[in-house]
Protein 1
Amino acid sequence: MNLIPFCSDKDDAREYFHIPFNLGGCTFATNGSVTLRVKLDPKYLPFKGTSEFSRNELPTKLLDFFKNIENFDFKVLPRLAKLNTKECAGCDGVGLKIKEDCEECEGEGDLIFSNSYNQYEVECQSCLGKGKKKIEAPCITCHVCDGDKQVIDHENNFHRLPEGDVSAVILHSLNKLAGFRYAHKEGLMYVFKFNGGYGLFMGINGE
Protein backbone atom coordinates (compact mmCIF):
# COMPACT_ATOMS: atom_id res chain seq x y z
CA MET A 1 0.00 0.00 0.00
CA ASN A 2 1.27 3.46 -0.88
CA LEU A 3 1.24 5.51 2.33
CA ILE A 4 2.90 8.64 0.93
CA PRO A 5 -0.41 10.37 -0.02
CA PHE A 6 -1.32 10.32 3.68
CA CYS A 7 1.89 12.05 4.78
CA SER A 8 2.27 15.82 5.15
CA ASP A 9 3.55 18.08 2.39
CA LYS A 10 7.18 19.13 2.30
CA ASP A 11 6.24 22.65 3.41
CA ASP A 12 4.98 21.27 6.73
CA ALA A 13 7.50 22.22 9.44
CA ARG A 14 6.99 18.81 11.08
CA GLU A 15 9.59 16.97 9.04
CA TYR A 16 8.89 13.73 10.87
CA PHE A 17 5.46 13.63 9.14
CA HIS A 18 6.91 13.88 5.61
CA ILE A 19 7.34 10.11 5.26
CA PRO A 20 5.88 7.03 6.98
CA PHE A 21 7.59 5.88 10.16
CA ASN A 22 7.71 2.86 12.45
CA LEU A 23 6.47 3.01 16.02
CA GLY A 24 5.30 0.41 18.51
CA GLY A 25 5.68 -2.49 16.08
CA CYS A 26 3.57 -0.85 13.34
CA THR A 27 4.04 1.61 10.48
CA PHE A 28 2.28 4.98 10.57
CA ALA A 29 1.59 7.72 8.05
CA THR A 30 0.02 11.05 9.00
CA ASN A 31 -0.47 14.64 7.87
CA GLY A 32 -1.77 15.77 11.25
CA SER A 33 -5.45 15.48 10.27
CA VAL A 34 -5.51 11.84 9.14
CA THR A 35 -3.36 9.03 10.52
CA LEU A 36 -3.03 5.47 9.18
CA ARG A 37 -1.55 2.48 10.98
CA VAL A 38 -0.60 -0.68 9.10
CA LYS A 39 1.56 -3.74 9.66
CA LEU A 40 5.24 -3.03 10.20
CA ASP A 41 7.05 -2.21 6.98
CA PRO A 42 10.82 -2.60 7.54
CA LYS A 43 11.71 -0.22 4.71
CA TYR A 44 10.73 2.71 6.93
CA LEU A 45 12.78 4.06 9.85
CA PRO A 46 11.77 4.33 13.52
CA PHE A 47 10.01 7.55 14.48
CA LYS A 48 12.41 10.37 15.29
CA GLY A 49 11.06 13.69 16.53
CA THR A 50 12.85 17.00 16.23
CA SER A 51 11.53 18.75 19.34
CA GLU A 52 11.06 17.86 22.99
CA PHE A 53 7.33 17.31 22.45
CA SER A 54 7.72 15.21 19.31
CA ARG A 55 10.45 13.10 20.92
CA ASN A 56 8.92 12.54 24.34
CA GLU A 57 5.15 13.08 24.23
CA LEU A 58 3.94 12.58 20.66
CA PRO A 59 4.85 8.86 20.37
CA THR A 60 2.97 8.03 23.57
CA LYS A 61 -0.09 10.06 22.55
CA LEU A 62 -0.16 8.46 19.11
CA LEU A 63 -0.03 4.93 20.51
CA ASP A 64 -2.73 5.81 23.06
CA PHE A 65 -5.05 7.03 20.30
CA PHE A 66 -4.91 3.58 18.69
CA LYS A 67 -5.25 1.59 21.91
CA ASN A 68 -8.12 -0.94 21.63
CA ILE A 69 -9.15 0.60 18.31
CA GLU A 70 -10.29 -2.79 17.02
CA ASN A 71 -13.09 -2.87 19.63
CA PHE A 72 -15.10 -0.01 18.13
CA ASP A 73 -18.44 -0.59 16.38
CA PHE A 74 -17.46 0.42 12.85
CA LYS A 75 -20.15 1.28 10.32
CA VAL A 76 -20.48 2.06 6.62
CA LEU A 77 -20.09 5.69 5.63
CA PRO A 78 -23.33 7.39 4.47
CA ARG A 79 -23.54 8.29 0.79
CA LEU A 80 -21.21 11.17 -0.05
CA ALA A 81 -22.25 14.11 -2.21
CA LYS A 82 -20.05 15.27 -5.08
CA LEU A 83 -17.29 17.61 -3.96
CA ASN A 84 -17.87 21.33 -4.50
CA THR A 85 -15.47 22.97 -6.91
CA LYS A 86 -14.56 26.52 -7.82
CA GLU A 87 -12.91 28.26 -10.74
CA CYS A 88 -9.17 27.70 -10.81
CA ALA A 89 -7.43 30.89 -9.72
CA GLY A 90 -4.24 29.76 -11.43
CA CYS A 91 -5.76 30.04 -14.91
CA ASP A 92 -9.03 31.95 -14.31
CA GLY A 93 -10.96 28.90 -15.48
CA VAL A 94 -9.26 28.66 -18.87
CA GLY A 95 -7.38 25.40 -18.23
CA LEU A 96 -4.16 26.80 -19.67
CA LYS A 97 -1.27 28.62 -18.08
CA ILE A 98 -2.18 32.24 -18.79
CA LYS A 99 0.11 33.99 -16.29
CA GLU A 100 3.76 33.83 -15.44
CA ASP A 101 5.96 35.55 -12.87
CA CYS A 102 6.91 39.09 -13.80
CA GLU A 103 10.54 39.10 -14.88
CA GLU A 104 11.30 42.50 -13.38
CA CYS A 105 10.07 41.86 -9.81
CA GLU A 106 10.36 38.04 -10.00
CA GLY A 107 6.75 37.60 -8.95
CA GLU A 108 6.99 39.79 -5.83
CA GLY A 109 4.87 42.66 -7.11
CA ASP A 110 7.24 45.28 -5.78
CA LEU A 111 10.85 46.32 -6.03
CA ILE A 112 13.26 47.31 -3.28
CA PHE A 113 15.95 49.93 -3.70
CA SER A 114 18.45 50.95 -1.08
CA ASN A 115 21.33 53.31 -0.58
CA SER A 116 23.52 54.27 2.32
CA TYR A 117 20.69 56.38 3.79
CA ASN A 118 17.46 54.48 3.24
CA GLN A 119 15.59 51.53 1.77
CA TYR A 120 12.65 52.08 -0.58
CA GLU A 121 9.90 49.69 -1.64
CA VAL A 122 7.95 50.63 -4.76
CA GLU A 123 5.24 48.96 -6.81
CA CYS A 124 6.52 47.19 -9.90
CA GLN A 125 5.32 49.11 -12.95
CA SER A 126 5.77 46.17 -15.32
CA CYS A 127 3.01 44.14 -13.63
CA LEU A 128 1.30 46.95 -11.68
CA GLY A 129 2.05 45.22 -8.41
CA LYS A 130 0.39 41.93 -9.32
CA GLY A 131 3.59 39.91 -9.60
CA LYS A 132 2.22 38.18 -12.71
CA LYS A 133 2.13 39.00 -16.39
CA LYS A 134 -0.36 37.71 -18.93
CA ILE A 135 0.84 35.19 -21.49
CA GLU A 136 -0.38 36.40 -24.86
CA ALA A 137 -0.69 32.98 -26.55
CA PRO A 138 -1.17 30.37 -23.80
CA CYS A 139 -0.59 26.76 -24.86
CA ILE A 140 0.66 25.00 -21.72
CA THR A 141 -1.80 23.13 -19.47
CA CYS A 142 -2.39 24.80 -16.13
CA HIS A 143 -0.40 22.93 -13.46
CA VAL A 144 -2.87 23.94 -10.72
CA CYS A 145 -6.01 22.30 -12.16
CA ASP A 146 -4.32 20.04 -14.74
CA GLY A 147 -6.51 21.60 -17.41
CA ASP A 148 -9.82 20.87 -15.63
CA LYS A 149 -10.57 24.60 -15.20
CA GLN A 150 -11.99 23.82 -11.74
CA VAL A 151 -10.34 22.93 -8.41
CA ILE A 152 -11.73 21.48 -5.18
CA ASP A 153 -13.11 24.14 -2.87
CA HIS A 154 -11.51 23.08 0.42
CA GLU A 155 -13.26 25.82 2.39
CA ASN A 156 -16.78 24.78 1.38
CA ASN A 157 -16.76 21.00 1.43
CA PHE A 158 -18.30 19.61 4.61
CA HIS A 159 -20.21 16.40 5.21
CA ARG A 160 -22.65 16.09 8.08
CA LEU A 161 -22.29 12.86 10.04
CA PRO A 162 -24.60 12.05 12.97
CA GLU A 163 -21.79 13.07 15.33
CA GLY A 164 -20.84 16.34 13.60
CA ASP A 165 -19.30 17.90 10.50
CA VAL A 166 -16.27 16.40 8.78
CA SER A 167 -14.24 17.54 5.79
CA ALA A 168 -15.82 15.97 2.71
CA VAL A 169 -12.41 16.04 1.02
CA ILE A 170 -11.01 13.79 3.75
CA LEU A 171 -13.99 11.44 3.62
CA HIS A 172 -13.80 11.09 -0.17
CA SER A 173 -10.12 10.23 0.14
CA LEU A 174 -10.62 7.67 2.90
CA ASN A 175 -13.68 6.11 1.30
CA LYS A 176 -11.43 4.94 -1.55
CA LEU A 177 -9.67 2.58 0.88
CA ALA A 178 -10.98 -0.95 0.44
CA GLY A 179 -13.23 -2.02 3.31
CA PHE A 180 -13.46 1.48 4.82
CA ARG A 181 -15.64 1.68 7.94
CA TYR A 182 -15.71 4.42 10.57
CA ALA A 183 -16.73 5.03 14.18
CA HIS A 184 -16.90 8.07 16.44
CA LYS A 185 -14.29 7.91 19.22
CA GLU A 186 -14.78 11.10 21.24
CA GLY A 187 -15.06 14.83 20.71
CA LEU A 188 -13.83 15.61 17.21
CA MET A 189 -11.91 12.35 16.83
CA TYR A 190 -13.08 9.52 14.58
CA VAL A 191 -11.48 6.12 14.05
CA PHE A 192 -11.70 3.86 11.03
CA LYS A 193 -10.61 0.53 9.70
CA PHE A 194 -9.85 -0.68 6.20
CA ASN A 195 -8.39 -3.77 4.60
CA GLY A 196 -4.88 -3.77 6.00
CA GLY A 197 -5.06 -1.39 8.92
CA TYR A 198 -6.71 1.20 11.11
CA GLY A 199 -6.69 4.97 11.29
CA LEU A 200 -8.11 8.12 12.78
CA PHE A 201 -9.21 11.51 11.49
CA MET A 202 -10.43 14.75 12.99
CA GLY A 203 -13.82 16.36 12.50
CA ILE A 204 -14.54 20.07 12.13
CA ASN A 205 -17.15 20.48 14.84
CA GLY A 206 -19.38 18.24 16.92
CA GLU A 207 -22.99 18.11 17.95
Protein 2
Amino acid sequence: MRHVVATYLLVFLAKMLAAGGGLGGGGLLVPIFLLVSAVAPSSATPLSVCAIAGGAVANYLAYSQRRRSDNAPLVDYSAALLVLPPLLMGTMLGAVLDAVLPEWLIVCLLFCVLSALAVRTTHKGLSTWRAQGRALAAEAARLECERSSGDVVERSRENSDHSQRRSRSNSPLPPLFPRHALGYAGASWTVVLLSALARGGHGAPSVLKGGVTCGSALYWCLFLLAWAALAGLTISVRDNLLLAAPSECDAADEGECDDAATTRLLDPPRWTRARTRHVPLASFGAGVAAGVLGIGGGMLVGPLLLELGVEPRGVAATGAFLVLLADTSVVTQYALMGLLPASHGAPLALTAFAATAVGQAAAERVIVVTGRTAVVMLIIAAVIAVSTLATGAVAVRNLVAAARQGTHMGMRSLCS
Protein backbone atom coordinates (compact mmCIF):
# COMPACT_ATOMS: atom_id res chain seq x y z
CA MET A 1 0.00 0.00 0.00
CA ARG A 2 2.87 2.35 0.83
CA HIS A 3 4.38 1.78 -2.62
CA VAL A 4 1.04 2.58 -4.27
CA VAL A 5 0.67 5.88 -2.38
CA ALA A 6 4.26 6.86 -3.18
CA THR A 7 3.76 5.97 -6.84
CA TYR A 8 0.62 8.09 -7.22
CA LEU A 9 2.26 11.01 -5.41
CA LEU A 10 5.32 10.89 -7.66
CA VAL A 11 3.12 10.55 -10.76
CA PHE A 12 1.21 13.66 -9.65
CA LEU A 13 4.44 15.63 -9.18
CA ALA A 14 5.93 14.40 -12.46
CA LYS A 15 2.83 15.37 -14.44
CA MET A 16 2.73 18.78 -12.74
CA LEU A 17 6.31 19.42 -13.86
CA ALA A 18 5.73 18.19 -17.41
CA ALA A 19 2.46 20.11 -17.84
CA GLY A 20 4.06 23.55 -18.08
CA GLY A 21 6.11 22.46 -21.08
CA GLY A 22 3.32 20.58 -22.85
CA LEU A 23 5.25 17.31 -22.43
CA GLY A 24 3.95 13.84 -21.75
CA GLY A 25 6.54 13.06 -19.09
CA GLY A 26 7.13 9.45 -20.15
CA GLY A 27 10.82 9.80 -19.33
CA LEU A 28 9.78 10.44 -15.72
CA LEU A 29 6.84 8.06 -15.40
CA VAL A 30 8.42 4.80 -16.60
CA PRO A 31 11.32 5.04 -14.08
CA ILE A 32 8.79 5.77 -11.31
CA PHE A 33 6.87 2.60 -12.09
CA LEU A 34 10.03 0.50 -12.40
CA LEU A 35 11.94 1.84 -9.38
CA VAL A 36 9.14 2.70 -6.92
CA SER A 37 6.32 0.31 -7.80
CA ALA A 38 8.75 -2.43 -8.88
CA VAL A 39 6.37 -3.54 -11.64
CA ALA A 40 7.53 -5.60 -14.60
CA PRO A 41 8.80 -3.66 -17.64
CA SER A 42 5.91 -5.09 -19.68
CA SER A 43 3.47 -3.37 -17.28
CA ALA A 44 5.39 -0.11 -16.83
CA THR A 45 4.82 1.07 -20.38
CA PRO A 46 1.00 0.57 -20.38
CA LEU A 47 0.76 2.31 -17.00
CA SER A 48 2.83 5.21 -18.32
CA VAL A 49 0.66 5.41 -21.43
CA CYS A 50 -2.50 5.68 -19.32
CA ALA A 51 -1.03 8.50 -17.23
CA ILE A 52 0.24 10.37 -20.29
CA ALA A 53 -3.18 10.06 -21.94
CA GLY A 54 -4.94 11.65 -18.97
CA GLY A 55 -2.49 14.53 -18.92
CA ALA A 56 -2.57 14.97 -22.69
CA VAL A 57 -6.35 15.42 -22.66
CA ALA A 58 -6.12 18.07 -19.91
CA ASN A 59 -3.27 19.85 -21.69
CA TYR A 60 -5.00 20.04 -25.04
CA LEU A 61 -8.39 21.02 -23.58
CA ALA A 62 -6.74 24.04 -21.97
CA TYR A 63 -4.36 25.09 -24.74
CA SER A 64 -6.82 24.59 -27.58
CA GLN A 65 -9.04 27.39 -26.23
CA ARG A 66 -6.28 30.02 -26.20
CA ARG A 67 -5.10 32.43 -28.86
CA ARG A 68 -1.90 34.29 -29.61
CA SER A 69 -1.67 38.06 -29.63
CA ASP A 70 -2.61 38.03 -33.34
CA ASN A 71 -5.78 36.02 -32.50
CA ALA A 72 -4.49 32.87 -34.21
CA PRO A 73 -4.81 29.63 -32.19
CA LEU A 74 -2.06 29.17 -29.62
CA VAL A 75 -1.54 25.67 -31.02
CA ASP A 76 0.62 26.15 -34.12
CA TYR A 77 -1.17 23.64 -36.33
CA SER A 78 1.01 24.38 -39.35
CA ALA A 79 4.17 23.47 -37.45
CA ALA A 80 2.47 20.46 -35.86
CA LEU A 81 1.32 19.07 -39.20
CA LEU A 82 4.75 19.45 -40.78
CA VAL A 83 6.36 17.76 -37.77
CA LEU A 84 3.86 14.95 -37.09
CA PRO A 85 4.05 12.59 -40.13
CA PRO A 86 7.89 12.47 -40.35
CA LEU A 87 8.06 12.19 -36.56
CA LEU A 88 5.83 9.11 -36.72
CA MET A 89 7.93 7.70 -39.57
CA GLY A 90 11.01 8.15 -37.42
CA THR A 91 9.48 6.47 -34.38
CA MET A 92 8.53 3.45 -36.51
CA LEU A 93 12.15 3.07 -37.68
CA GLY A 94 13.45 3.85 -34.21
CA ALA A 95 11.35 1.07 -32.68
CA VAL A 96 12.94 -1.39 -35.11
CA LEU A 97 16.45 -0.17 -34.27
CA ASP A 98 15.64 -0.31 -30.55
CA ALA A 99 14.83 -4.01 -30.92
CA VAL A 100 18.14 -4.89 -32.62
CA LEU A 101 20.79 -2.52 -31.22
CA PRO A 102 22.82 -3.58 -28.15
CA GLU A 103 21.43 -2.18 -24.90
CA TRP A 104 24.77 -0.67 -23.88
CA LEU A 105 24.79 1.39 -27.08
CA ILE A 106 21.24 2.61 -26.43
CA VAL A 107 22.25 3.68 -22.90
CA CYS A 108 25.21 5.66 -24.26
CA LEU A 109 23.02 7.31 -26.89
CA LEU A 110 20.42 8.12 -24.25
CA PHE A 111 22.88 10.01 -22.09
CA CYS A 112 24.48 11.82 -25.04
CA VAL A 113 21.26 12.93 -26.74
CA LEU A 114 19.32 13.94 -23.63
CA SER A 115 22.32 15.65 -22.03
CA ALA A 116 22.95 17.69 -25.18
CA LEU A 117 19.26 18.63 -25.38
CA ALA A 118 19.15 19.62 -21.71
CA VAL A 119 22.21 21.86 -22.06
CA ARG A 120 20.99 23.42 -25.31
CA THR A 121 17.47 24.07 -24.05
CA THR A 122 18.73 25.45 -20.73
CA HIS A 123 21.08 27.82 -22.56
CA LYS A 124 18.31 29.00 -24.86
CA GLY A 125 15.89 29.38 -21.94
CA LEU A 126 18.33 31.42 -19.87
CA SER A 127 19.28 33.67 -22.78
CA THR A 128 15.59 34.26 -23.55
CA TRP A 129 14.90 34.91 -19.85
CA ARG A 130 17.62 37.58 -19.80
CA ALA A 131 16.42 39.11 -23.08
CA GLN A 132 12.84 39.29 -21.84
CA GLY A 133 14.09 40.81 -18.58
CA ARG A 134 15.88 43.56 -20.51
CA ALA A 135 12.74 44.17 -22.57
CA LEU A 136 10.62 44.47 -19.42
CA ALA A 137 13.12 46.91 -17.88
CA ALA A 138 13.17 49.03 -21.03
CA GLU A 139 9.36 49.08 -21.15
CA ALA A 140 9.18 50.09 -17.49
CA ALA A 141 11.68 52.89 -18.09
CA ARG A 142 9.70 54.11 -21.11
CA LEU A 143 6.46 54.19 -19.15
CA GLU A 144 8.14 56.05 -16.31
CA CYS A 145 9.50 58.61 -18.75
CA GLU A 146 6.07 59.07 -20.35
CA ARG A 147 4.41 59.36 -16.95
CA SER A 148 6.78 62.11 -15.92
CA SER A 149 6.24 63.98 -19.20
CA GLY A 150 2.46 63.74 -19.06
CA ASP A 151 2.11 61.64 -22.22
CA VAL A 152 0.35 58.73 -20.58
CA VAL A 153 -3.12 60.25 -20.79
CA GLU A 154 -2.74 61.04 -24.46
CA ARG A 155 -1.33 57.58 -25.23
CA SER A 156 -4.19 55.95 -23.33
CA ARG A 157 -6.68 57.95 -25.37
CA GLU A 158 -4.95 56.87 -28.58
CA ASN A 159 -4.99 53.24 -27.46
CA SER A 160 -8.68 53.52 -26.58
CA ASP A 161 -9.50 54.94 -30.00
CA HIS A 162 -7.47 52.17 -31.64
CA SER A 163 -9.32 49.53 -29.63
CA GLN A 164 -12.66 51.01 -30.59
CA ARG A 165 -11.74 51.03 -34.28
CA ARG A 166 -10.55 47.45 -33.96
CA SER A 167 -13.74 46.35 -32.22
CA ARG A 168 -15.84 47.92 -34.97
CA SER A 169 -14.09 45.82 -37.58
CA ASN A 170 -16.02 42.68 -38.31
CA SER A 171 -13.09 40.54 -39.45
CA PRO A 172 -13.78 36.97 -38.30
CA LEU A 173 -11.39 35.26 -35.94
CA PRO A 174 -9.45 32.25 -37.23
CA PRO A 175 -11.07 29.01 -36.04
CA LEU A 176 -9.62 27.41 -32.93
CA PHE A 177 -10.00 23.98 -34.53
CA PRO A 178 -9.07 24.23 -38.25
CA ARG A 179 -10.81 21.41 -40.09
CA HIS A 180 -8.02 20.80 -42.57
CA ALA A 181 -5.44 20.59 -39.76
CA LEU A 182 -7.49 18.13 -37.75
CA GLY A 183 -8.14 16.13 -40.92
CA TYR A 184 -4.42 15.77 -41.66
CA ALA A 185 -3.72 14.91 -38.03
CA GLY A 186 -6.49 12.32 -38.00
CA ALA A 187 -5.15 10.77 -41.20
CA SER A 188 -1.65 10.42 -39.70
CA TRP A 189 -3.10 8.97 -36.51
CA THR A 190 -5.15 6.41 -38.47
CA VAL A 191 -2.22 5.34 -40.66
CA VAL A 192 -0.02 4.54 -37.65
CA LEU A 193 -2.83 2.78 -35.79
CA LEU A 194 -3.79 0.57 -38.73
CA SER A 195 -0.16 -0.26 -39.47
CA ALA A 196 0.49 -1.29 -35.86
CA LEU A 197 -2.66 -3.41 -35.69
CA ALA A 198 -1.87 -5.08 -38.99
CA ARG A 199 1.76 -5.88 -38.12
CA GLY A 200 1.10 -6.73 -34.48
CA GLY A 201 3.22 -5.71 -31.55
CA HIS A 202 3.21 -4.90 -27.83
CA GLY A 203 2.90 -8.62 -27.18
CA ALA A 204 -0.18 -9.07 -29.37
CA PRO A 205 -0.51 -10.75 -32.77
CA SER A 206 -1.63 -9.15 -36.00
CA VAL A 207 -5.37 -8.58 -36.43
CA LEU A 208 -5.18 -9.76 -40.05
CA LYS A 209 -6.59 -13.16 -40.85
CA GLY A 210 -3.77 -15.66 -40.89
CA GLY A 211 -1.50 -13.26 -39.00
CA VAL A 212 1.71 -11.53 -40.07
CA THR A 213 5.06 -13.12 -39.28
CA CYS A 214 7.60 -10.69 -37.83
CA GLY A 215 10.27 -9.90 -40.42
CA SER A 216 8.35 -11.47 -43.30
CA ALA A 217 7.87 -9.82 -46.70
CA LEU A 218 4.28 -8.91 -45.76
CA TYR A 219 5.52 -7.35 -42.50
CA TRP A 220 7.92 -5.03 -44.31
CA CYS A 221 5.38 -4.28 -47.06
CA LEU A 222 2.94 -3.04 -44.40
CA PHE A 223 5.77 -1.04 -42.84
CA LEU A 224 6.70 0.63 -46.13
CA LEU A 225 3.03 1.20 -47.00
CA ALA A 226 2.59 3.19 -43.80
CA TRP A 227 5.76 5.12 -44.58
CA ALA A 228 4.51 5.94 -48.07
CA ALA A 229 1.20 7.23 -46.69
CA LEU A 230 2.95 9.41 -44.08
CA ALA A 231 5.42 10.72 -46.67
CA GLY A 232 2.49 11.63 -48.93
CA LEU A 233 0.84 13.53 -46.08
CA THR A 234 4.11 15.39 -45.41
CA ILE A 235 4.43 16.44 -49.06
CA SER A 236 0.80 17.58 -49.14
CA VAL A 237 1.22 19.64 -45.96
CA ARG A 238 4.43 21.20 -47.30
CA ASP A 239 2.78 22.18 -50.58
CA ASN A 240 -0.15 23.77 -48.76
CA LEU A 241 2.16 25.73 -46.46
CA LEU A 242 4.18 27.07 -49.39
CA LEU A 243 1.00 28.08 -51.22
CA ALA A 244 -0.29 29.94 -48.17
CA ALA A 245 3.08 31.52 -47.29
CA PRO A 246 3.61 35.23 -48.09
CA SER A 247 5.66 35.84 -51.21
CA GLU A 248 7.90 38.48 -49.61
CA CYS A 249 10.82 36.03 -49.37
CA ASP A 250 12.24 34.86 -52.66
CA ALA A 251 14.71 32.05 -53.14
CA ALA A 252 17.71 34.33 -52.82
CA ASP A 253 16.62 35.60 -49.43
CA GLU A 254 15.48 32.32 -47.89
CA GLY A 255 18.45 32.11 -45.54
CA GLU A 256 17.91 35.64 -44.28
CA CYS A 257 14.18 35.02 -43.83
CA ASP A 258 14.85 31.83 -41.89
CA ASP A 259 17.33 33.60 -39.62
CA ALA A 260 14.95 36.49 -39.03
CA ALA A 261 12.01 34.24 -38.28
CA THR A 262 14.04 32.13 -35.88
CA THR A 263 15.08 35.13 -33.81
CA ARG A 264 11.50 36.36 -33.36
CA LEU A 265 9.63 34.51 -30.64
CA LEU A 266 6.36 36.41 -31.01
CA ASP A 267 5.56 35.55 -34.61
CA PRO A 268 4.67 32.21 -36.19
CA PRO A 269 7.44 30.70 -38.36
CA ARG A 270 7.71 31.80 -41.97
CA TRP A 271 7.49 28.81 -44.24
CA THR A 272 10.09 28.93 -47.01
CA ARG A 273 11.18 26.12 -49.29
CA ALA A 274 14.35 25.58 -47.30
CA ARG A 275 12.56 25.52 -43.97
CA THR A 276 9.85 23.13 -45.16
CA ARG A 277 12.63 20.75 -46.19
CA HIS A 278 14.67 21.04 -43.01
CA VAL A 279 11.84 20.70 -40.49
CA PRO A 280 10.58 17.28 -41.71
CA LEU A 281 14.16 15.96 -41.81
CA ALA A 282 14.79 17.17 -38.26
CA SER A 283 11.44 15.73 -37.15
CA PHE A 284 12.31 12.38 -38.69
CA GLY A 285 15.61 12.38 -36.81
CA ALA A 286 13.80 13.26 -33.58
CA GLY A 287 11.39 10.39 -34.18
CA VAL A 288 14.22 7.90 -34.77
CA ALA A 289 15.93 9.04 -31.57
CA ALA A 290 12.66 8.81 -29.61
CA GLY A 291 12.02 5.30 -30.89
CA VAL A 292 15.57 4.06 -30.26
CA LEU A 293 15.87 5.59 -26.81
CA GLY A 294 12.35 4.62 -25.73
CA ILE A 295 11.37 8.17 -24.71
CA GLY A 296 8.45 10.36 -25.69
CA GLY A 297 8.79 12.43 -28.83
CA GLY A 298 7.64 15.52 -26.93
CA MET A 299 11.02 15.89 -25.22
CA LEU A 300 12.70 16.06 -28.61
CA VAL A 301 10.03 18.03 -30.47
CA GLY A 302 9.90 20.79 -27.84
CA PRO A 303 13.50 21.90 -28.45
CA LEU A 304 12.92 21.55 -32.21
CA LEU A 305 9.93 23.92 -32.07
CA LEU A 306 11.98 26.37 -30.00
CA GLU A 307 14.73 26.33 -32.63
CA LEU A 308 12.06 26.88 -35.26
CA GLY A 309 11.09 30.13 -33.54
CA VAL A 310 7.68 29.18 -32.15
CA GLU A 311 6.71 31.36 -29.17
CA PRO A 312 7.38 29.45 -25.90
CA ARG A 313 3.75 29.11 -24.85
CA GLY A 314 3.01 28.06 -28.41
CA VAL A 315 5.67 25.37 -28.03
CA ALA A 316 3.86 23.99 -24.97
CA ALA A 317 0.49 24.10 -26.74
CA THR A 318 1.78 22.54 -29.96
CA GLY A 319 3.72 19.92 -28.03
CA ALA A 320 0.56 19.04 -26.09
CA PHE A 321 -1.31 18.52 -29.38
CA LEU A 322 1.44 16.22 -30.70
CA VAL A 323 1.61 14.25 -27.44
CA LEU A 324 -2.17 13.80 -27.50
CA LEU A 325 -2.09 12.35 -31.02
CA ALA A 326 0.88 10.07 -30.42
CA ASP A 327 -0.27 8.76 -27.05
CA THR A 328 -3.92 8.20 -27.90
CA SER A 329 -2.76 6.10 -30.84
CA VAL A 330 -0.81 3.86 -28.47
CA VAL A 331 -3.68 3.78 -25.95
CA THR A 332 -6.07 2.70 -28.69
CA GLN A 333 -3.69 -0.07 -29.75
CA TYR A 334 -3.41 -1.36 -26.18
CA ALA A 335 -7.18 -1.17 -25.70
CA LEU A 336 -7.98 -3.06 -28.91
CA MET A 337 -5.41 -5.70 -28.00
CA GLY A 338 -6.70 -6.04 -24.43
CA LEU A 339 -3.38 -4.97 -22.89
CA LEU A 340 -4.49 -1.98 -20.82
CA PRO A 341 -4.05 -2.48 -17.06
CA ALA A 342 -7.49 -2.95 -15.52
CA SER A 343 -6.79 -1.95 -11.92
CA HIS A 344 -4.67 1.21 -12.15
CA GLY A 345 -5.25 2.47 -15.70
CA ALA A 346 -8.24 4.75 -15.10
CA PRO A 347 -7.09 6.03 -11.65
CA LEU A 348 -3.69 6.95 -13.07
CA ALA A 349 -5.29 8.77 -16.01
CA LEU A 350 -7.51 10.77 -13.62
CA THR A 351 -4.54 11.55 -11.36
CA ALA A 352 -2.52 12.76 -14.34
CA PHE A 353 -5.47 14.83 -15.59
CA ALA A 354 -5.74 16.64 -12.23
CA ALA A 355 -1.96 17.06 -11.93
CA THR A 356 -1.73 18.52 -15.42
CA ALA A 357 -4.49 21.03 -14.69
CA VAL A 358 -2.70 22.12 -11.50
CA GLY A 359 0.68 22.26 -13.24
CA GLN A 360 -0.69 24.34 -16.09
CA ALA A 361 -2.29 26.82 -13.71
CA ALA A 362 0.93 27.10 -11.72
CA ALA A 363 3.03 27.65 -14.87
CA GLU A 364 0.64 30.31 -16.16
CA ARG A 365 0.74 32.04 -12.78
CA VAL A 366 4.54 32.12 -12.84
CA ILE A 367 4.48 33.53 -16.38
CA VAL A 368 2.04 36.27 -15.35
CA VAL A 369 4.04 37.18 -12.23
CA THR A 370 7.42 37.21 -13.97
CA GLY A 371 6.16 38.49 -17.33
CA ARG A 372 8.48 36.04 -19.08
CA THR A 373 7.40 33.15 -21.27
CA ALA A 374 10.94 31.76 -21.03
CA VAL A 375 9.58 29.87 -18.01
CA VAL A 376 8.27 27.30 -20.49
CA MET A 377 11.76 26.77 -21.93
CA LEU A 378 13.22 26.23 -18.48
CA ILE A 379 10.47 23.74 -17.59
CA ILE A 380 11.21 21.74 -20.75
CA ALA A 381 14.93 21.79 -19.90
CA ALA A 382 14.20 20.62 -16.34
CA VAL A 383 12.03 17.73 -17.53
CA ILE A 384 14.71 16.62 -20.00
CA ALA A 385 17.44 16.81 -17.35
CA VAL A 386 15.50 14.83 -14.74
CA SER A 387 14.42 12.31 -17.39
CA THR A 388 18.07 11.84 -18.37
CA LEU A 389 18.97 10.85 -14.83
CA ALA A 390 15.86 8.72 -14.23
CA THR A 391 15.88 6.74 -17.47
CA GLY A 392 19.65 6.44 -17.30
CA ALA A 393 19.45 4.96 -13.79
CA VAL A 394 16.94 2.36 -14.97
CA ALA A 395 19.01 1.51 -18.04
CA VAL A 396 22.23 1.13 -16.05
CA ARG A 397 20.44 -1.08 -13.51
CA ASN A 398 19.18 -3.32 -16.29
CA LEU A 399 22.63 -3.51 -17.89
CA VAL A 400 24.26 -4.49 -14.60
CA ALA A 401 21.65 -7.21 -14.06
CA ALA A 402 22.13 -8.49 -17.61
CA ALA A 403 25.92 -8.60 -17.20
CA ARG A 404 25.63 -10.56 -13.95
CA GLN A 405 23.34 -13.07 -15.63
CA GLY A 406 25.67 -13.42 -18.60
CA THR A 407 23.07 -12.14 -21.06
CA HIS A 408 24.17 -11.57 -24.66
CA MET A 409 25.32 -7.93 -25.05
CA GLY A 410 25.66 -7.72 -28.83
CA MET A 411 23.20 -7.14 -31.66
CA ARG A 412 19.78 -8.68 -31.07
CA SER A 413 17.18 -10.25 -33.32
CA LEU A 414 14.19 -8.11 -34.29
CA CYS A 415 11.73 -10.95 -33.75
CA SER A 416 13.23 -12.62 -30.70
